[in-house]
TrEMBL record, chain A:
Signal sequence segment: none
Top-level taxonomy: Eukaryota, Fungi, Dikarya, Ascomycota, Pezizomycotina
Annotated source species: Tuber borchii (White truffle)
UniProt subcellular location: Cytoplasm; Nucleus, Nucleolus
Short name of any one Pfam family annotated for the protein: RNase_PH
Protein name per its UniProtKB record: Ribosomal RNA-processing protein 41
Subunit structure comment from the entry: Component of the RNA exosome complex. Specifically part of the catalytically inactive RNA exosome core complex (Exo-9) which may associate with the catalytic subunits RRP6 and DIS3 in cytoplasmic- and nuclear-specific RNA exosome complex forms. Exo-9 is formed by a hexameric base ring of RNase PH domain-containing subunits and a cap ring consisting of CSL4, RRP4 and RRP40.
Automatic annotation (TrEMBL), chain B:
Species lineage: Eukaryota, Fungi, Dikarya, Ascomycota, Pezizomycotina
Designated name of the protein: Ribosomal RNA-processing protein 42
GO molecular function, one term: mRNA 3'-UTR AU-rich region binding
Highest taxon, organism lineage: Eukaryota
Family membership: Belongs to the RNase PH family.
Predominant subcellular localization, coarse grouping: cytoplasm
Classification via Pfam families: RNase_PH_C
Record-linked PANTHER family: EXOSOME COMPLEX COMPONENT RRP42, EXOSOME COMPLEX EXONUCLEASE RIBOSOMAL RNA PROCESSING PROTEIN
GO biological process: exonucleolytic trimming to generate mature 3'-end of 5.8S rRNA from tricistronic rRNA transcript (SSU-rRNA, 5.8S rRNA, LSU-rRNA); nuclear mRNA surveillance; nuclear polyadenylation-dependent rRNA catabolic process; rRNA catabolic process; TRAMP-dependent tRNA surveillance pathway; U1 snRNA 3'-end processing; U4 snRNA 3'-end processing; U5 snRNA 3'-end processing
Organism from which the protein derives: Tuber borchii (White truffle)
Cellular-component GO terms for this entry: cytoplasmic exosome (RNase complex); nuclear exosome (RNase complex); nucleolus; ribosome
InterPro entries per record: ExoRNase_PH_dom2, ExoRNase_PH_dom2_sf, Exosome_comp_Rrp42_subfam, PNPase/RNase_PH_dom_sf, Ribosomal_Su5_D2-typ_SF
Keyword entries, A-Z: Cytoplasm, Exosome, Ribonucleoprotein, Ribosomal protein
Subcellular location: Cytoplasm; Nucleus, Nucleolus
TrEMBL record, chain C:
Coiled-coil residue spans: none
Protein name stated in the entry: Exosome complex component RRP45
Record field: transmembrane: none
Subcellular location as annotated: Cytoplasm; Nucleus, Nucleolus
Keywords: Cytoplasm, Exosome, Nucleus, Ribonucleoprotein, Ribosomal protein, RNA-binding, rRNA processing
Domain Exoribonuclease phosphorolytic: 33-164, 190-256
InterPro entries, per database record: ExoRNase_PH_dom1 (IPR001247), ExoRNase_PH_dom2 (IPR015847), ExoRNase_PH_dom2_sf (IPR036345), Exosome_comp_Rrp42_subfam (IPR050590), PNPase/RNase_PH_dom_sf (IPR027408), Ribosomal_Su5_D2-typ_SF (IPR020568), Rrp45 (IPR033100)
Entry's Gene Ontology cellular component terms: cytoplasmic exosome (RNase complex); nuclear exosome (RNase complex); nucleolus; ribosome
Any one GO molecular function term: mRNA 3'-UTR AU-rich region binding
Predominant localisation class: cytoplasm
């Protein structure tokens, strides 16, 4: 067992949350003028900045598809984002895997068919890591894509769920893992599209009993719905602000 | 003489006629800048500090033309034997430009060199007993490069981050392995208020008899000479000419640049030091 | 850059129409694997997997090295995969494509990170000597389901492999040759099996073990790795068509059944191979020219 308890007997986690509580989630939209769309999300201590350019003319000819727009994703871990300073090269397999997962997630949600022979470029910078990084990247990219006005069918939102084993061997799902929980517990990252809660991304990287998957997914789908509400509110607030400033 | 440059050479979308017009209006007394700023006025900028809890010091700055820069400073304990280059290696600077494959080594060096101003005493503050020292990593992330030269943006953000960098207090003896105070409230600033602060670099462009601070891309294109002036506290510690510009520089102009830079820098310092105190 | 030839419009509509009627063009049911052929080489640790026209070869080898300084009590286990032009003309040698990175990450997560191989058992002298087990995956022919086939190949080869025995007397480490002492099998903690599902027609139809053509036409995919104890080792559904959670859970249940079946086939083939080896060894020993002690 680990040195400290992930879940206290009173049902509180190391940071004082209950099993179904998320960390503070603060989304910001249109953070920079230099890109077509941008966003900044703080989810607890995980902080991700995202900018979207597009649809633009493809920068590389390999990104040109005569039927639909291509979605390219750059994920960058800032050297100071973790506990120890660490530089990640561009060729890091984990980063490449994240980029591919993000690009494929949005390829099925954006109406890429409306912009053939063009590219939508999503650039993500992770400034601070404290668990749920892929999920926060998905949320940040969604918000930036909305800001950029790229046509899409619905919000894509993501969250993580851990599976905690009680001392009596029963299991308990924990919504929204921080890095300590990610280290010690198995967990899934899950992204849903829109209101009908269909799952576009599902990742599990550690061993867990098959029976627990259903419970984790149910909690995750609720978490994604909650994040969708928060993102939707951010978008509406931003729209109202724009209208008030006379931009519309 | 109006500069004979075309838009291809300067990277601005202006025609030779427009460039000539701009040049003329900048040489008037008093000069007229396209955005009606006074010669020493800066474009609006947004700055915040202490944004990242996982760093020892951090800052974010957004420049008027959309340039955005984030700096994170991290300190790690290192054995003296590891750095072969001696104390000069104790501060490492990296500049990462978003969308570029490799780090910008030239910009990194420019910033790193200016940090090691002799007499600033910063290296002495990194010593931890007899066998260890702090190694400072200054990682500069240029999210969107500004349209004009990035030097000012980089150094101002770095200044802000370093000014807000705190190191845990050493509680062990000199001969022991270092042990630190757990209380962040007792942390020691890397650059205490009463000591020489980190330097900043201002960009100045000279057109005819006039000099302008914080030039835009178009102003850089018609400038006679572009100077990067590094200022530390109240002293100018370095003046370099940057490529671009179309003529030489008069001695009087340099004198005026230095004099006015000090005055402008003082205002910049005082406003930057105000960042983070308000909240 | 060479590309895989896309199915023609006729082929595409034919296959999708058939799938709409729950029919596959090779006559299989939707949740049936192609016939799995598994054979072993003369040496230990060589497994040859055929899944229909897909063929994957895995070779396991061992070497004595110094362990990583941060893990002095563990041996080293690496899996290397390279998609070469032998499998399909669409693959270029030397250049790591996105597909290859994803494939190697998946196998890595499925087998290495799920601790299928007990790396602590590979330690010889803590901090100084340990076994490095290396699994090289070669793709000989590509007709879909590369992940599933290579996972089977690696776990089969790992179970088939025997490493030389080691004895330690004080400071002295002796590695005995294969003829000197009976070589020892690796300590395998569990046998993970990958099952890849392909989704069509907005999730109405999901196939297991898709052929290359079916893979090219799919709207989304998901790879589930689990073992016969019902432990999930890894799930990767990286984007693609959004699918209802209930369908995904049904897939996971199907995958559990399939993993059990495949693991049983692997087990049976391993036993058959062991039996053949015993017979052959006995034959060798009873030969007239065999030196008798």
């Amino acid at each position: 067992m680990s040195r400290y308890e992930i879940l206290s007997p009173e049902g509180l986690r190391t940071d004082g949350r209950r099993w179904n509580e998320m960390r503070r989630f603060s989304p910001k939209m249109a953070t920079t003028t230099a890109a077509d769309g941008s966003s900044y999300i703080e989810h607890g201590n995980t902080k991700v900045i995202c900018s979207v350019n597009g649809p633009i003319e493809p920068r590389a000819s390999s990104a040109r598809n005569s039927e639909r727009a291509t979605i390219t994703v750059d994920v960058c871990f800032a050297a100071f984002s973790g506990t120890d300073r660490k530089k990640r090269g561009k060729g890091d397999k984990r980063v490449l895997e994240m980029q591919s997962a993000l690009s494929r997630t949005f390829a099925s949600t954006l109406l890429t068919i409306l912009h053939p022979r063009s590219e939508v470029h999503i650039s993500l910078h992770i400034l601070s890591q404290d668990g749920s990084i892929l999920a926060t990247c998905v949320n940040a990219a969604t918000l930036a894509l909305v800001d950029a006005g790229v046509p899409m069918t619905d919000y894509v939102t993501a969250c993580t769920v851990a599976s905690y084993t009680n001392p009596d061997e029963s299991d308990e799902p924990l919504l929204d893992m921080n890095s300590a929980e990610e280290m010690d517990l198995p967990g899934i990252t899950l992204a849903t599209v829109g209101r009908n809660d269909k799952i576009s991304l599902l990742q599990l990287e550690t061993k867990v009993r098959l029976e627990r998957l259903e419970g984790m997914m149910a909690v995750g789908i609720d978490g994604c719905a909650k994040i969708r509400q928060l993102l939707d509110r951010a978008v509406r607030d931003h729209g109202n602000e724009m209208a008030r400033m006379g931009a519309l | 003489m109006a500069p004979l440059q075309t838009s291809q050479q300067t990277g601005t979308p202006l025609s030779p006629a427009e460039l000539s017009y701009l040049h003329t209006s900048l040489t008037l007394t008093p000069p007229i800048r396209p955005d009606s700023r006074t010669p020493t006025q800066f474009r609006p900028l947004f700055a915040e500090s202490d944004i990242l809890p996982s760093t020892n010091g951090s800052a974010r700055m957004i420049w008027g033309d959309g340039g955005e820069c984030i700096v994170g400073v991290k300190a790690e304990v290192e054995k003296n034997s590891i750095s072969s280059g001696g104390p000069r290696d104790w501060i490492e600077t990296n500049v990462e430009v978003s969308g570029q494959r490799d780090d910008d080594a030239f910009l990194g060096m420019t910033v790193a060199e200016s940090l090691l101003v002799p007499g600033s005493g910063v290296l002495e503050r990194l010593v931890l007993g007899e066998r260890f020292h702090w190694k400072i990593f200054v990682d500069i992330l240029l999210l969107t490069p500004p349209l004009s030269h990035p030097a000012t943006l980089l150094t101002l953000t770095t200044y802000l981050a370093l000014r807000n960098t705190f190191l845990p207090k050493l509680v062990s003896e000199a001969a022991e392995d270092p042990v630190f105070d757990d209380d962040w409230g007792n942390g020691l600033p890397l650059y205490p208020v009463d000591r020489i602060p980190p330097p900043i670099t201002l960009l100045v462009v000279n057109v005819g008899e006039n000099i302008f601070f914080d030039p835009t891309r178009e102003e850089l294109a018609v400038g006679d000479v572009v100077l990067a002036v590094s200022i530390c506290e109240k002293k100018v510690v370095g003046v370099r000419t940057l490529e671009g510009g179309s003529g030489g520089v008069k001695r009087e102009a340099v004198k005026r640049v230095i004099k006015e830079s000090c005055e402008v820098a003082e205002e910049v310092f005082s406003s930057l030091n105000g960042v983070g105190e308000g909240d | 850059m060479p590309r895989e030839l896309d199915p023609t419009i006729n082929e595409k509509s034919f296959i999708l129409d058939a799938l709409n009627q729950k029919l596959r063009i090779d006559g299989r049911d939707l949740d049936v694997f192609r016939e799995l052929e598994l054979s072993f080489g003369d040496d230990y640790g060589l497994a040859d997997v055929r899944l229909g026209k897909t063929r994957v070869l895995a070779r396991v080898s061992a070497e004595v090295v110094k362990p990583f300084t941060d893990r002095p009590f563990e041996g080293i286990f690496t899996i290397t995969t390279e998609l070469g032009p032998m499998a399909s003309p669409a693959f270029e040698p030397g250049r790591q494509t996105e597909q290859e990175v994803l494939l190697s990450r998946l196998i890595e997560k499925a087998i290495r990170r799920s601790n299928a191989l007990d790396t602590e058992s590979l330690c010889i002298v803590a901090g100084q000597k340990c076994w490095q087990i290396r699994a090289d995956v070669h793709f000989l022919s590509h007709d879909g389901a590369l992940v599933d086939a290579s996972c089977i190949a690696v776990v089969a080869a790992l179970q088939h492999f025997r490493r030389p025995d080691v004895s330690i007397e004080g400071e002295k480490v002796t590695i005995h040759t294969m003829t000197e002492r009976v070589p020892v099998p690796l300590s395998i903690l569990h046998v993970p099996i990958c099952v890849t599902f392909s989704f069509y027609l907005d999730g109405e139809v999901c196939l297991v073990d898709a052929t290359l053509q079916e893979e090219q036409l799919r709207q989304g995919d998901m790879t589930i790795t689990l073992n016969k104890f019902g432990e999930l080792c890894q799930i990767a559904k990286a984007g693609g068509l959004a699918i209802n959670a209930l369908i995904l859970l049904r897939c996971a249940k199907i995958a559990l059944v399939k993993a059990g079946e495949i693991a049983a086939i692997v087990q049976r083939r391993l036993e058959e191979d062991a039996a053949v080896r015993v017979r052959r060894d006995n034959l060798l020993e009873s030969k007239a020219d065999n030196e008798r002690a």
